[in-house]
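Much of what follows relies on a compact textual record of a protein's fold. An example makes this concrete, so a full record is given next.
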Amino acid sequence: MDLRSAGSLVLSGWQRLHRHAPLVWLTPSVPVILVQADGSDAVWRDGAPASGAAAAVSASCVAVEVPDDLLLRRQLTLPALSDADLAGAIELDVQSVSPFGPLDVVFGHDARANTDGTVQVEVAIASRRQVEQFLATQSDRLARVQPKVQTPEVWARSARNTAIVFSGFGEAARQQAGRKKLWGAYAMVFCAVVLLGGVLLTPTAQLRLRAIEAVNAYDKAVAVARPVVAQREELLKTTEQLNALAEILQGRIEPLKVIERLTHALPDDAALQTFKLQGNKVTIVGQTGNSSALMQVLSEQPGIRDVKAPTAATRMPGTAKETFVIEFALDPQQYGVALAQPAVQPAAGTASAGAASDTSPPASSTAPPTPAQAGTAAPPPPVAAPPVPARAAAPSGGATFGGATFGGAPAASPGASAPAGKGSAALPAAKP
């Protein structure tokens, strides 16, 4: 493969492509004024006489028709060849049959394709010396038609009334003008393609720019909202922790509430040896005089359900009490963890009453002297107890868990004695 001729082959193929209908409008059409052999003038386009409005245009190129008595004509039938190969074959044939010398001969040809794939060529041969003498006789006509033209073209009329252009005269000016028009047509096509591409790409470019602006705006919004988002995440974590803690505490039972309730519910003859709390299930082991009655008492307590004895109660020989094992379930609504309530501020009247009670001196009681002390020295005067504020009137000796106080007895008011209740015993008088 000879790559040196690749450029000429591509150019030749492109020139042939211009001859077809889709691209024929790209082929430049340069008008030429033909000084005919019969003495008249006519405008030709694309190697043929122009008609109508095309014949009235002005032309910058001029050609002179050579009369038939100065021409030799020859008909050739050649295979389909490229333009360069066809020109070389015609030149070889002219050199072999021309009666003129190699430097004196000039020729031109007109080729048309046949239906069988061959090319029909009409060749016109003339003497350069005779053609130049004929042009000298047409100088007046040339000056009248186009004064600025220095070297006109030399044409001959073919049998099908088309132009046969002789090479080596003024056809270079027309070819240069044709190339300028061709490049102008290419520039117009390029501009049209660029504009069409711009029209097609503009919506996509606009969408891309909008997307870029949206991404930038989103990044700015994220940067601005980052502290708020961090606070929100921290709040969510705290909320999750609180929810988890609430789930843990939801079913938690406060043991002190259960113990306080059992302390009030169990009879005096009952004693607990083991207290076991698992979830909301309680297992107690102890001794009592009647385990069945104890189970009945427990079943009647609010918040206690499913009271049962996993094993039968036993009575040891020689004892009056039964050893029992009792299981029961607790209601978390009553025995669950209670939320701390905000302290309630006392009303004005209550505060004043409390203040009044705080300022009142407590009643002092002195024990009468015993007979053993009658003859002894007088006892020292009793020391007054310090005033107890109103808030100290809460039950004493108890335990506080979950906002509730258990196991304490209500404090006696000054000057009053608390009655002995179930399971209570009077303390003996202190001896001096």
Remarks:
- The chain has a mean pLDDT of 76.
- The longest strand covers residues 118-127.
